[in-house]
């Protein structure tokens, strides 16, 4: 892997808590900071294109994501994305079949103690380097085909569709 391209779209992984508003908002992308703190042994570049909860990502956002990835030379792409519509976005990227694309996110914000963000990012980084070209989802310690996975909202995890 020459360089890992990371495209961020927001989601829980980047959420921050504002005491004065008593709610969450999507903040700056956290993945670059996380990878730097971990001292990874590969080059990466972060392109933040959207800063939304995935429930607010629409077809135009998905097309922007697809076009952004298509315009880059990188053959290894990691996308951070909210978990609620991650599967739909992964399916929308399926036409980019000449590269390995892995979507990941978090069920708890990366800034929170006990967040699954670092674990999911690590799983995604390993997957993007070892899988053949295609689109995948890395969540809950598993690599999923977007055509055969769903998010179980009640259990707060991904599982076979």
UniProtKB/TrEMBL annotation:
Superkingdom assignment: Bacteria
Domain L-asparaginase N-terminal: 4-155
InterPro entries: Asp/glu_Ase-like_sf (IPR036152), Asparaginase/glutaminase-like (IPR006034), L-asparaginase_N (IPR027474), L-asparaginase_N_sf (IPR037152)
Protein name stated in the entry: Asparaginase
Species this chain originates from: Luteimonas terricola
């Amino acid at each position: 892997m020459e360089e890992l391209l990371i495209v961020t779209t927001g989601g829980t992984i980047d959420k921050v808590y504002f005491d004065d508003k008593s709610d969450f908002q999507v903040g700056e992308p956290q993945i670059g900071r996380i990878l730097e703190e971990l001292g990874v042994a590969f080059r990466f570049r972060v392109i933040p294109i959207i800063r939304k909860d995935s429930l607010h990502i629409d077809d135009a956002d998905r097309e922007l994501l697809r076009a952004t990835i298509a315009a880059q030379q990188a053959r290894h792409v990691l996308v951070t994305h909210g978990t609620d519509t991650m599967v739909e976005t992964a399916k929308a990227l399926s036409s980019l079949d000449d590269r390995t694309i892995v979507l990941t996110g978090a069920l708890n914000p990366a800034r929170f103690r006990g967040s699954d963000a670092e674990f999911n990012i690590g799983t995604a980084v390993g997957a993007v380097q070892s899988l053949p070209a295609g689109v995948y989802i890395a969540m809950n310690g598993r690599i999923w085909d977007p055509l055969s996975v769903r998010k179980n909202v009640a259990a707060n995890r991904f599982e076979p569709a």
